[in-house]
């Protein structure tokens, strides 16, 4: 059974930092594109960052220079380091693994508020 388990969410003031982690079980993530998405109520899920098996990176424009995605295949873990957080970064953040199949985590809430 494949599981992706996110952690690291929480509440932070604007300008603060959080690091999200996503630990996979049941798959070898080295074969997968690993992505972070986010979603707010009433809106579609948005791709935030992606890292492929060759460590090529993609970021949505709104987080470039503030967020960093990284992967540790040996630990089956993907990270999202989020710095200089803004209120508009508030969302549920989801981990995604995609290859021939796609898997999702349950999500972790990030709230940026003063």
Polypeptide structure, described:
The protein is mostly beta strands and 114 residues long. Helix content is 0%, strand content 53%. It has no helices and eleven strands. It has strands spanning 3-7, 10-12, 18-25, 33-39, 46-51, 57-59, 67-72, 77-82, 91-98, 102-104, 108-112. Strands 2, 4, 5, 6, 9, 10 and 11 form a seven-stranded mixed sheet that branches. It has a four-stranded antiparallel sheet with strand order 1-3-8-7, with no helix packed on it. β5 (46-51) and β6 (57-59) form a beta hairpin. The protein is globular. The model has no long low-confidence stretch (mean pLDDT 97).
Q: Please state the average pLDDT score.
A: 97
| Count of helical stretches | 0
Model regions low in confidence, pLDDT < 50 over at least 5 residues: none
Q: N-to-C SSE series?
A: EEEEEEEEEEE
How many DSSP E strands?
A: 11
- State which percent range the strand residues make up: over 45%
* Alpha carbon gap, first and last residue: 40 Å
Assign a percent range to the helix content.
under 10%
Given the C-alpha coordinates, what overall shape results? globular
**Roughly how many Å is the radius of gyration?**
13 Å
Label the structural class: mainly beta
For the biggest sheet, the summary is: 7 strands, mixed
Secondary-structure blueprint:
Elements: E1 3-7, E2 10-12, E3 18-25, E4 33-39, E5 46-51, E6 57-59, E7 67-72, E8 77-82, E9 91-98, E10 102-104, E11 108-112
Parallel strand pairs: 2-11
Antiparallel strand pairs: 1-3, 3-8, 4-5, 4-9, 5-6, 7-8, 9-10, 9-11
């Amino acid at each position: 059974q494949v599981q992706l388990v996110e952690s690291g969410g929480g509440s932070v003031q604007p300008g603060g930092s959080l690091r999200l982690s996503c630990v996979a079980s049941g798959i070898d993530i080295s074969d997968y594109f690993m992505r972070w998405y986010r979603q707010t109520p009433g809106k579609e899920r948005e791709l935030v960052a992606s890292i492929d098996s060759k460590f090529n990176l993609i970021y949505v424009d709104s987080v470039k220079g503030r967020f960093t995605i990284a992967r540790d295949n040996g630990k089956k873990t993907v990270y999202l380091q989020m710095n200089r957080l803004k209120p508009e970064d508030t969302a549920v953040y989801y981990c995604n693994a995609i290859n021939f199949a796609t898997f999702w985590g349950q999500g972790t809430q990030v709230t940026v508020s003063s």
